[in-house]
Amino acid sequence: MANQNSLCVITLMGFLAAPVFAGVSLTLPENVEVIAINGQLASSQDKLNLNDGLHQLAFRYNAQYRQQANAVRYQSEVVIIRFNQAEQELTLKLPKISSNKDAKQFDTAPQIALFNANNDNISFEWDMLVKNGLQIGRNYEQEILQYNLANKVAAIPVSQQLTNMNTAVVSSTANQSDIAVNSAPALTPTPQAPASTTISSSTIATPEAKVEGPTQAEISHMLDYWYQQADEATKKRFKAKINKQ
Fold first, then answer.
1. Residue 202 domain flag
2. For the whole model, what pTM was predicted?
3. Is 31 inside a domain boundary?
């Protein structure tokens, strides 16, 4: 009886320890740059955990190879794939790019494959999200929305993208509100300003400016200068005036 109980406990622990698989997991190559999932911007990651159903993935393929002893960095156009699966472990596989020829081949007709855990091929649709001209500052959400509105090859219903975008906006707004509340400084009483008073110009005492005159040495120097500049008649009148004092 004790052995049976032990066996039951071990079996139960085994069930509890086993991971419960639900939804769709998608493993990505390390050189894949995730742009958006179902039209919503997303960061790059090695594995995506998705709900069962229809999904759209937008990504770039970044590679590096050597061409005539020079290192070449390759970046593909944005690739869009759409698949509809449930309870699957999927793996995305891309061709190896080791030359300019491989890069041009991927730009023209990328060899993309999607496999499940049994290594079976999974059907999907793919397309390129091409934008001519300046690539910096692209609004991928808006571009993908226009893509889906046009109902192109790998499009998903616009309602699905808008639902994801609205959910992200609500979540982002809630997080910002929490941050704002938590980081708000404590309110402190503001001292009231004193009552204003009117001051007339007559009540303001303005000190008289003290004018500094020339020193006695400066005066003596000026007297000597002007005395030398005067003619003999002027010198006589000046001497006579001094003598009368």
1. no
2. 0.60
3. yes
